[in-house]
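Lab notebook, bench 4. The sequencing result for the construct came back, and we need a structural model before the next group meeting so we can plan mutations. Quick request posted to the team channel:

Model the 3D structure of this chain.
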Amino acid sequence: MAIKGVLAQITVSDLAQATEYYGRLFGRGPDENPMPGLLEWHFTPEAGVQLWADPARSGKSTVAFNEDDLQGVAKRLDTAKIEHGGIEDATHFQILQVLDPEGNHVVFTSAAG
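Done. Here's the predicted structure in token form:
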């Protein structure tokens, strides 16, 4: 097997509300709308995230993003009025956790500095 990339998926019930929220979270709107009920943000040619409308499975997703500057992420989230628990220390890295309006977890990680 030779995996070339990944699109993590966040399942939501209200795509319009989620689009607004994740637009603020990522600092921009989605890059693609490949089919009804599906939006995509591309961060590199090989990695991105999808919002998928599926009310029966919404609010149960977790996705983690590796970032270089968690302080910068925290400031950007504060400016966008997105609640977070602050930067937490873990074993060999730090994390910044966000819970979206439907209960999905978004975790930003960075090497401990």
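The two ends are 34 Å apart (CA to CA).
Will bring this to the meeting.
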